[in-house]
Amino acid sequence: MTPSQAQKFPQARILLLVESSSNSESWVKDLRDTDYYCFERRSFNTRSLLDTILTEQLWDAIICDYDLTTLPPVDVLRHALQLRPQTPFLFLSTTPDLRLAVEMMRLGARGFVEKGDQAHLLELLRQELHARSRAATSVSIEREQHILDTFDD
Fold it and tell me: I need a surface site. Which of 23, 30, 42, 132 has the fewest CB within 10 A?
């Protein structure tokens, strides 16, 4: 499925997580130029600032630059999953390595994408947001059924 055929989630808030010193402007601009999601670029250079960014609002997905220098990417992943365990976390890298990608996904990342592969990234986002939407609908139906069952008693 091409990005133009993908289901859009225009209200979805996607965090683009980069370092303060990161040279990420080109891929951030490419993503912001799409009309699929609301991308918000936030930069950090300390764990404290990372905490603030991750907890200041609810994010529908997190995309993190893997090419970090101030904090190890695996620590950023673990910390994000600790604070936001239900939020899909994707890495972007200039040089994706299959072994590294498998390791990051084993630790909880939902994807590991090359920075230039916007179509693949958008498709992964669509899949993750669709899965979250289905799960939320399922929970809502279960709650409604529980209320109805309780009401009938």
Answer: 23
